[in-house]
Structures are given as structure tokens and as C-alpha cells.
UniProtKB/TrEMBL annotation:
Keywords for the protein's UniProt record, in alphabetical order: Oxidoreductase
Family indicated by similarity: Belongs to the nitroreductase family.
Oxidoreductase among keywords: yes
Region Disordered, residue ranges: 1-20
Originating species: Psychrobacter glaciei
InterPro entries: Nitroreductase (IPR029479), Nitroreductase-like (IPR000415)
Name under which the protein is recorded: Nitroreductase
Length: 256
């Protein structure tokens, strides 16, 4: 076990751990030892390790398995130099072994819905699955010219709520779709950071960056949104700036 992966065992002494969950302690150690590391050593992250971390990232839960994410691993020397500048020359960017742009896409739901039907693990594809991806998903996202479809969806949703009861709100606007893509992609980003920790490396999610400049550097479109930059590498001795603390759990958890 990595010497940095020390667990907060004092908080867990009173929690019963069933014998059939031996992975629980390892999971705790990964989560509790993950920190936002600001300085990294010169130790590289092997390509196969990074590939496994990205594979685990993409196992994150996501809406309808539409997977609206992309990961840009910035290895080119010139692009890396410009990326560090676009990340405000933060130490987490300057010293990182790898720099990764985590991107949410708002334009691929239809293509991915069709790809799911082509690659579905059961053949023939069940009718309810076909109907879901060709009808339900399409209606959920379609907005139409000047949002005319969105207006119709809004009216229909209000009627259904009054007559039949609860119904999921569809995506009426571009911002709705952007929030959907961002939320799903953030789940994958967390998986990526935990996977790096499990492999003995660390990360720092950076929100302080020039997104327009980064989008130009990576050649991204208006439908691709960088939700964070991640610096990754081996934790340096002076890589953590402050002690970790959180507010009391009772402040945030409500049983109703």
C-alpha cells in the first residue's frame, strides 16, 4: 500500500464491517487519502496506468448510458506549455506528469443513442430498448427551431403532471442540456481521480483556467465544454498545502 494512503480509521472504529466486504477498507483508504495535490515529483505516470484510470473513469454512472464525455491528454510539448499558461501557471499544472482536459459534450446524444443500438450486447435488440433510444431519448433532448419543440414539451409536461402525476422534466433549453452533460462528466472525473489514487498517484482538479483559450488550443467546438483541467502525478513532499477538514456531516445530511 502506498505510504500516503493513510485512512481516517478513528472515524470508522464504531462502524461494523461485514466479513464479505473486504474491499471496504481499501475503498476508504483511497477516498480518505485523495487530496488536491499542488506539487508533483518528476516520476512519470506509465501509459498503461493512465489508460486503466481512463477506463475506470468511463465506468462512471451516466444518464441513459449516453456517455457525454471526452478526455484530452495533453502530451505535446508545445501544447503542454501553452496549457500551463492557460491554467494561470499553477504549480499543479507546471509540475504535473500528465495534464488532462475533461470535456462535456452537448452534441452527441443522438449519435450515441444510435451507437448504443448498434453495439447493444443483446441481439436482437429488445423492442423496449429500441423504443427508448429512438423515441424517449429523442423527445427528451429535441428543442426544434427557435425552441418550438421545447415550448410544446413544456405544455405537455404540465398537463401530464396535473392529470397523471410526477413526470421527469425534459431538457427545454441549451443550458438544460449543458447541465446534463456537465453533471454526467463530473461523475467520470471523480472516478478518474480516485483511480489515479488507487494506482498510487495523485491529482488536482483545476477550475482556474482560461476556457476559451483552452478550447482554441484543443480545437473544440461550441458544443464541447471543458468542465475542469486535471493535473496528475506522484505527490511531492510539499504537494499538499493545507490540512484537510470538512464541516460536520449533520450540517448537510437530512433524514426526512
Amino acid at each position: 500500500m502506498d505510504p500516503n494512503m493513510t485512512s481516517n480509521s478513528d472515524n470508522n472504529d464504531n462502524i461494523a464491517t461485514p466479513e464479505h466486504t473486504p474491499q471496504l477498507q481499501a475503498f476508504r483508504e483511497v477516498v480518505e487519502s485523495r487530496r488536491s495535490v499542488r506539487r508533483f515529483t518528476d516520476t512519470p505516470i506509465p501509459d498503461d496506468v493512465l489508460a486503466d484510470c481512463l477506463r475506470l473513469a468511463m465506468l462512471a454512472p451516466n444518464s441513459s448510458n449516453l456517455q457525454p464525455w471526452e478526455f484530452y491528454v495533453i502530451d505535446n510539448a508545445d501544447k503542454r506549455k501553452r496549457t500551463v499558461k492557460n491554467c494561470m501557471n499553477q504549480n499543479a499544472a507546471k509540475t504535473a506528469a500528465r495534464l488532462i482536459a475533461v470535456v462535456a459534450r452537448t452534441d452527441i446524444w443522438h449519435d450515441h443513442a444510435q451507437q448504443i443500438l448498434r453495439e447493444y450486447p443483446e441481439t436482437p435488440v429488445p423492442k423496449k430498448v429500441k423504443d427508448y433510444y429512438t423515441k424517449v431519448v429523442a423527445m427528451d433532448f429535441l428543442r426544434g427551431p427557435a425552441n418550438v419543440v421545447s415550448a410544446a414539451k413544456w405544455s405537455a409536461t404540465q398537463v401530464v403532471r396535473r392529470v397523471k402525476g410526477p413526470i421527469k422534466s425534459p431538457y427545454y433549453t441549451f443550458e438544460d442540456t449543458k447541465n446534463w452533460a456537465t453533471n454526467n462528466t463530473a461523475l467520470a472525473a471523480e472516478n478518474l481521480m480516485l483511480a489515479l489514487r488507487a494506482h498510487g498517484f495523485d491529482s488536482c482538479p483545476m477550475g482556474g483556467f482560461d476556457e476559451p483559450a483552452m478550447k482554441r488550443l484543443l480545437g473544440l467546438s461550441n458544443d464541447q465544454h471543458i468542465i475542469m483541467m486535471i493535473g496528475a502525478g506522484e505527490r511531492a513532499d510539499n504537494g499538499i498545502y493545507n490540512s484537510q477538514f470538512r464541516f460536520d456531516q449533520k450540517q448537510f445530511v437530512h433524514y426526512v
